[in-house]
Design brief:
Length: about 350
């Protein structure tokens, strides 16, 4: 069994397992080489040999406990016929936004879409990864994916997304339902292909009021999790409602997840006293502190570990590694955590 599945089954694991959001990426020179070879970011995601190679790079370099398949939450928008590209220094750009392109002709069978390439990359990676290491599959949560579909730009204007959702309730609901179906099938396909844990990223969950949060975050996520659990009841599911500080507990309780990923701004006493009583917690070193490194990083790791060590937890970041981060800082983090007794 892999380390995260053991943790989920109640085993005591010390030192805590470590993996980091965006652990494969531009801060690694070996990533940039493969990205150039692949041609574009999308080619990298869709060429299973390359995707698998960059997935394994941080494991080979730092001996992390889990790999996360190299892909992106926005690939799924191609199933809606929305063409996407990733521009240097800009980020994702969708050719058309949803306002101009109501969802017609959606490819609902993930097996018949580009997403099969991700499944193949998972399969290749599983065969190369040692048995005790976890392989994490993932998808974006409907709300966060929709913010990009509505805006068509990387600099998401979230107030505009919220307004669009409120102004187009019926279409918004139809698209959320489609995203729920697609995301559930996509996660199931990833598990079938060798992922032993899956994560649902809701990076923009923090801007919603309570009723919006219930309708666009909690309920769709609950449905995705329930569909995945119908097929794979034992696969641990990580949820990440980034920034939704008032609603973290409600989200964790009502969605049916197993592991709650916490961002760096969430108060650690709340995490420990409320969330860790019921769930496995993952987090929450700040990517800015990882960037600084040195004593500041060590201090924060100590604070983190002292707070969370009595209950099962995964040491991770509150958000993705910044591309300016020296790889040595990641190595320092791993060595420091593993030196603690
Ligand atoms: O190592 C890993 O974590 C796995 C791969 C992964 C990527 N994106 C690769 C990527 C994962 C899990 C994601 C998730 C993702 N993608 C999220 C949710 C997590 C979060 O960051 O909040 C979101 C919102 C996206 C959408 C997205 N993709 C944006 C906004 C950007 C541009 C920002 C940036 O960092 O450049 C991307 C591009 C992207 N996805 C890169 C990587 C490594 C950089 C692209 C490159 O190599 O040029």
């Amino acid at each position: 069994m892999t380390i995260l599945c053991k943790l989920n089954d109640g085993d005591i694991i010390w030192p805590p397992p470590i993996w980091l959001m965006r652990q494969a990426g531009r801060y690694l020179p070996e990533y940039n080489i493969i990205r150039d070879k692949a041609g574009s970011f999308l080619d990298l995601c869709y060429k299973p040999n390359y995707a698998s190679e960059v997935t394994l790079q941080p494991i080979n370099r730092f001996d992390l406990d889990a790999a996360i398949i190299f892909a992106d939450i926005l690939l799924i928008t191609q199933n809606f016929g929305l063409d996407i590209r990733f521009e240097e220094n800009v980020g994702p750009v969708l050719e058309k936004s949803l306002t101009e392109n109501p969802a017609l002709g959606v490819i609902t069978e993930v097996e018949k879409s580009n997403l099969v390439n991700v499944a193949e990359a998972i399969n290749l990676t599983r065969h190369k990864l040692s048995r005790e290491k976890s392989l994490i599959g993932f998808c974006g949560a409907p709300w966060t994916v929709m913010t990009y579909m509505i805006n068509g730009r990387s600099k998401v204007d979230l107030s505009q997304s919220v307004k669009w959702m409120e102004d187009n309730p019926s279409l918004a609901n139809d698209i959320i339902c489609m995203l729920v179906e697609l995301s559930a099938s996509y996660l199931i396909l990833q598990i079938q292909s060798g992922a032993d844990v899956v994560k649902i990223f809701d990076s923009w969950a923090g801007v919603l009021n309570e009723s919006q949060f219930n309708n666009w975050v909690v309920e769709p996520t609950r449905q995705i999790i329930s569909k995945v659990k119908d097929v794979y009841p034992k696969t641990p599911i990580i949820g990440f409602p980034k920034g939704a500080h008032k609603f973290y507990e409600k989200y964790a309780v009502q969605t049916g997840l197993n592991i709650i990923a916490v961002d760096s701004e969430l108060d650690r006493d709340y995490v420990r006293n409320i969330l860790q009583k019921k769930f496995i917690v993952q987090g929450n070193i700040s990517p800015n502190i990882l960037l600084k490194g040195g004593e500041v990083l060590k201090k924060d790791i100590e604070l983190n570990i002292n707070k969370f060590r009595d209950q099962p937890f995964i040491l991770g970041l509150g958000h993705g590694i910044l591309k300016e981060t020296p790889p040595q800082h990641v190595l320092d983090l791993v060595q420091f955590v593993r030196s603690l007794s």
